[in-house]
Amino acid sequence: MNYLYFGLGVSLLIVAAIDLLWTTLWVEGGAGPLTARLMRRTWKLLRRFGTYSPRIRTLAGPVILALGLGMWIALLWGGWMFVFASAENALRDTIDAGPISWVERFYFVGYSMFTMGNGDFAPRDGLWQILTALMTASGMLLVTLSITYVLSVLDAVTQKRTFARNVSGLGLDGESIVTTTWNGDEFDDVALPLNSITTALNELTSNHKAYPILHYFYTDDREAAAVLSVASLDDALTLWQRATPEAKRPSDSVLENARSSVQSYLDTVSVFATQSDEHPPLPDLAVLRKAGVPTVSDEEFDDVLEELKERRRTMHGLIQADARQWPGTREE
Fold first, then answer.
1. What phi and psi, each to the nearest 5 degrees, are found at residue 121?
2. How far apart are CA 148 and CA 161, in angstroms?
3. Does 1 score more than 60 pLDDT?
């Protein structure tokens, strides 16, 4: 037996199994080590080419998903091929006598992994029959987990864009969301849509934890961009909570619940970016005043923004990492 081939094959199988199970089954674990590295490098490359055509970035999610599946298949296929190459008598040709070539081993592993029926080759009795059964089981596990994973990811992508559109339907920045929900006297109709948006944001955060690849599904549709919608929502919450008189504000419990959900989202996705060195554009109270919304003084609101500058720089870093511009209206 060639122990080098056998050890290499087993190592590849272990690496493939760890990364596959880590990525598809461990909800709190995020992506496996290999998948995480693959996602970062692919996004970095496509983001760079996206400077010439932003539409190229929309390929990031599908390309990363396809490459990840291909990587698992290659690792399992290669691992089993080296295992069966470790012994000259591991396989026998059921039609023609003679030595087994690498191409024939490749063929045997392929049709055994994907249960394509009996081919021209068969394992020798004993250990190799057991290993063939394990190889078929690993192929079935790969197919089952991959299909389930792909469907779950695509469902999460749809939910992500639905959330973004729900927020964008109220406004494309914090000021427009606040002015849209102002009825001329108070914000009495905010609670229902805000609770619905908060629930959707919590689901989006959970999906990001379970499927980190979700972060790389880019869209060039501004209204479907989740990171911009979260930034707009956070600015709107700041304006509701700190820029309007207490008597006119929406329910504190509703606002605090939404603010907590935004913070949870930031804590989850901040691993994909670093805090921006630049301060993002500031909300413009003049827009609210023009719409008849009562506000605090500019000086008082500036103190509020000073308290929130680290949070807003974290959000700005996420937006920059996603190759987008802040949805604000006034530069600092």
1. -125, 150
2. 20
3. yes
